[in-house]
Write a structure and sequence with these properties.
Low-confidence stretches: 1-46, 222-231, 627-660, 765-774, 778-790
Strand order of the largest sheet: 1-12
Distance between the termini: 95 Å
Structural class: little secondary structure
Largest sheet: 2 strands, antiparallel
Mean pLDDT: 79
Number of helices: 16
Length: 883
């Protein structure tokens, strides 16, 4: 006997069983026996789900054997029954207008609250039908007649010709309503209630226009063979004679438009002997084989992918769906909570790793465990997106739920699940907790994505209201698109490493640029500043004039000109710039988990995008403001080796300096652009020098990442770079400003200090006038040489270098108290000469003592280049630097 015959006979048997009691008892016994035999036969043929309601939890008859059922010995005035279908259907006296032949009142709830989100292109919150009552339509409203918990399960219109009838029930609530069950907060609740805001949207119209607008929904044009009915039909559609789509839409929308209802995904009659936790789903509850990203496979794909194709291969190739990276298995406690089979791997759980179709109250976007509740499992609370991510991205615990992974998640080059929860538990962290957000002024999640690219408005990020300033996991990561790769387009190495520090070795190309975003940022969005025109008389820092939004999915290559995000800094700049902050009014420091206000003289965040603004090219070219002229020349005094003036040199008030002894230019850490300043231009020999690995190669053409400096100090090894067994990225740190090491007015290279992660001024790479030392100092002018470290290694870096070293108006990040401009917060133009020897002007001059008289080219510094007034530099600098 084939599955179709068994299914047909079971349907017939079920209908006969539910005929009025006029059926003779002998006939009823015969039918029961026949149906039982057919069930056995069908099970032997295949384990596919069949229509056999008598075996399901929807069999509420006294003989059903379920926990909730009719009382075999009802109380006085109430009834019992051995009928099955009568709890929903009747051939006579059905509720008017409620199909199919409904035997119950629809609901006692007057209104329902529907699911809504900013990224939802269909309107589910107000429901698209029956709006005057604020109620869902069609089969959904019928399901809710039991599942909203407002009507007793045994309250029927008709039973055996009598009306109305109350069947006495056992296993329910005291008033015989739907019990909550053990899965109330885990996505398997029986009682949904009238608040459907944490439930999958229903009574919403699904059509190709919606699919096109959403970008991650499947259009209704894929035809497949239906395994039961034998009919040819699309995955989605409205049923009609000869047309049996797998997931039927209901014609309950405007002008009969097809809508998603409960019955689109669920068939209350289905029974699957191989999966008792199937939840009456018309297709697979879990992924069966590795997803391909192609046409929906009824045999292999999770039911969610029938509608939500998630841009096809973007999901199937993601780290959360790929069988290589998502191979970790659920443990016993987690499988019990989720009702998974023991050992279910993450890739097989697929969408259900993060989402529940009926999730805990308070969670947004159907996120599993996505609230602030401290109960296990969650029970109410406010939305907390990070709690969903922490289900896996946490320290492995073998005894306490959620116990998601069977492996520890210890990171290696190619395996392991990053423990992000612990990173956000560090003393200094991104403001992700309620108490951290907006400096404590807003304890409700404000950030909210608006489309499939996880875009957010500038206002949501904090442009008009600083209380909106906080961070969510989805601000930086798109969980549907992330991949494990050193490059965002998948062209790099498949490792745990977040980037290749310093870029690739060998000849320079744009594609090997070190700041290319890694795979964990794939699908995220950011901004590329459109810089103001920079010149020698423009105030520093120059805020960008506009921003180009970079979003979408990466294509081939990683060019900066791509319309999607390709650089790590593009992600950072959407918050650390005037894109999401009012110019001149950046948020203050000092929120819980943040750097205290006043640390290192800083009280507010700065405009990082402006600090990095320079007139630069990529790849760099000579003869511009990017690098000194005359590459290859060993004579720094030769006019061919002097670069154009980039900002005010010395104590001059104009930039019209042409003397070869006044060579100054802008400086920046090569995050956004390479510097263009080669070893020769820095007066360094071909090897060695004051750059520690991995930045000792490709000097002048390399770039670095924001996360080379920001993050946990234990994630960096001095002289090597990022540690492959540690979490990268600026989630949390032990040090202020989320730095990989201490940075204050007392930090020095010999501390060892944060700067020592990459710089080694104690090193000496040569002798003589041409390549005097790796620092660019002339050895003969610095007490006999030996390198910068011998002379100043124990002194605070900020005495000579800018305290916020993103970018700067002078070369080598050198401060100059002889010429302080608007960067100190003053209203004047040009230069102002500070009268004292110790500036406290924050943030850039905090702790500064250096005064420059004349700007020489690299390798040509000496004592007489610095000083105050007529004083000589050596005695003056010695007195202030020794303090």
């Amino acid at each position: 006997m084939n599955v179709l015959a068994a299914w047909s006979m079971r349907s017939l048997g079920s209908r006969l069983l539910d005929a009025p009691s006029l059926m003779a008892s002998s006939m009823r016994v015969l039918v029961l026996a026949l149906v039982g035999l057919l069930a056995v036969a069908a099970t032997q043929v295949a384990a596919a789900p069949v229509s056999n309601i008598r075996m399901t939890k929807h069999n509420l008859s006294k003989d059903g054997g379920q926990t909730v059922r009719a009382n075999a010995t009802p109380t006085a005035g109430q009834s019992t029954t051995d009928q099955i279908c009568v709890f929903c259907h009747t051939p006579h006296a059905a509720s008017s207008g409620k199909s199919p032949l409904w035997n119950r009142a629809t609901s006692a709830a007057s209104t329902y609250t529907g699911y809504t989100s900013l990224s939802m292109d269909a309107d589910g919150g107000a429901f698209q039908t029956d709006n005057t009552k604020g109620r869902p339509a069609g089969a959904s409203l019928l399901c809710l007649s039991c599942h909203d918990g407002t009507i007793a399960l045994g309250n029927l219109n008709v039973l055996n010709g009598r009306t109305p009838v109350i069947i006495d029930m056992v296993g329910g609530t005291a008033d015989d309503k739907m019990p909550t069950g053990s899965g109330t907060t885990t996505g398997f609740t029986r009682v949904i209630g009238a608040d459907l805001s944490n439930d999958h949207p229903i009574s919403v119209t699904y059509n190709n226009a919606l699919a096109s607008a959403d970008k991650e929904l499947r259009p209704m044009n894929a035809s497949q063979q239906h395994p039961i009915s034998g009919q040819i039909g699309s995955i989605l559609g409205i049923r009609s004679p000869g047309y049996k789509p797998l997931l039927p839409l209901a014609p309950t929308g405007t002008a009969g438009a097809g809508q998603v209802q409960c019955s689109t995904c669920h068939d209350p009659h289905l029974y699957d002997s191989a999966d008792p936790n199937r939840k009456f789903l018309r297709a697979n509850r879990l992924q069966v084989t590795a997803p391909t990203g192609g046409a929906f496979s009824e045999a292999n794909d999770i039911i969610c992918l029938a509608c939500h194709d998630k841009m096809g291969t973007e999901w199937s190739n993601s780290a959360h769906a790929n069988t290589s990276t998502a191979s970790y298995a659920y443990t016993g406690a987690a499988t019990t909570q989720r009702q998974f089979a023991a050992g279910t791997p993450v890739w097989k759980a697929a969408c259900l790793n993060c989402h529940d179709t009926h999730t805990v109250a308070g969670a947004r976007r159907l996120l599993r465990e996505g609230t602030t509740s401290t109960a296990t499992p969650k029970a109410g609370g406010k939305s907390a997106i990070e709690e969903t991510c922490y289900q896996c991205h946490t320290a492995y615990n073998a005894t306490t739920p959620p116990n998601v992974l069977t492996q520890s998640g210890t990171l290696t080059a190619t395996t392991g699940v990053p423990n992000i929860k612990s990173e956000f538990g560090r003393p200094v962290r991104m403001p992700i907790k309620d108490a951290d957000q907006g400096g404590g002024g807003n304890t409700t999640e404000v950030h909210d994505i608006s489309d499939a690219d996880f875009s957010e408005t500038r206002e949501k990020l904090g442009l008009l209201d600083k209380k909106n300033r906080h961070v969510e996991c989805t601000d930086c990561h798109n969980p549907h698109r992330v991949i494990r790769n050193t490059k965002i387009d998948g062209s790099g190495v498949t490792t745990q490493r977040t980037h290749v520090a310093g870029g690739s070795a060998g000849s320079y190309t744009v594609e090997s640029d070190g700041n290319v975003a890694s795979g964990v940022l794939r699908g995220a969005w950011g901004v590329e500043p459109v810089d103001a025109l920079l010149n020698g008389i423009t105030d520093w820092p120059e805020a960008p004039t506009n921003y180009e939004v970079k979003k979408g999915v990466t294509g081939t290559g990683t060019a900066r000109s791509s319309t999607w995000l390709t650089r790590e800094y593009q992600l950072c700049f959407k918050c650390h710039s005037t894109y999401s902050n009012t110019a001149g009014s950046f948020p203050t420091l000092g929120h819980t988990g943040g750097t205290p206000s006043g640390t290192n003289g800083m009280t507010t965040y700065t405009n990082v995008a402006a600090e990095f603004a320079v007139n630069a090219t990529d790849p760099p070219s000579t003869g511009t403001d990017q690098g000194e002229k005359g590459e290859g020349s060993n004579s720094p005094e030769d006019s061919a080796s002097i670069e154009p003036i980039g900002s005010y040199p010395g104590n001059a008030t104009t930039s019209n300096m042409t003397a070869t002894t006044n060579v100054n230019h802008r400086s920046w850490h090569p995050v956004r652009w390479p510097t263009g300043r080669s070893r020769d231009e820095r007066r360094m020999q071909a090897t060695g020098g004051n750059f520690r690995a991995p930045f000792g190669t490709r000097v002048g053409t390399q770039t670095m990442h924001c996360s080379d400096c920001h993050g946990n100090a234990t994630s960096w090894t001095q002289g090597t770079g990022p540690k492959l067994d540690q979490v990268q990225g600026p989630h949390g740190s032990e040090d202020y400003f989320l730095l990989k090491g201490s940075w204050s007015s007392s930090t020095s290279i010999s501390s060892p200090g944060f700067c020592g992660n990459c710089h080694n001024p104690s090193a000496s790479s040569g002798s003589g006038d041409d390549y005097a030392g790796s620092s660019g100092f002339n050895n003969s002018g610095e007490d006999g040489g030996g390198g910068h470290g011998n002379e100043h290694g124990g002194k605070a870096c900020v005495k000579c270098h800018v305290a916020v070293p993103h970018g700067w108006r002078n070369k080598a990040f050198l401060v100059n108290l002889n010429c302080v401009g608007r960067e100190a917060g003053a209203t004047y133009t040009g230069c102002m000469n500070f009268s004292d020897n110790s500036a406290t002007v924050a943030p850039y001059y905090q702790g500064a003592t250096l005064r420059v008289k004349t700007w020489p080219a690299s390798g040509n510094w000496s004592a007489n280049k610095c000083g105050k007034g007529s004083s000589t530099a050596r005695d003056w600098m010695r007195s202030v630097c020794d303090n």
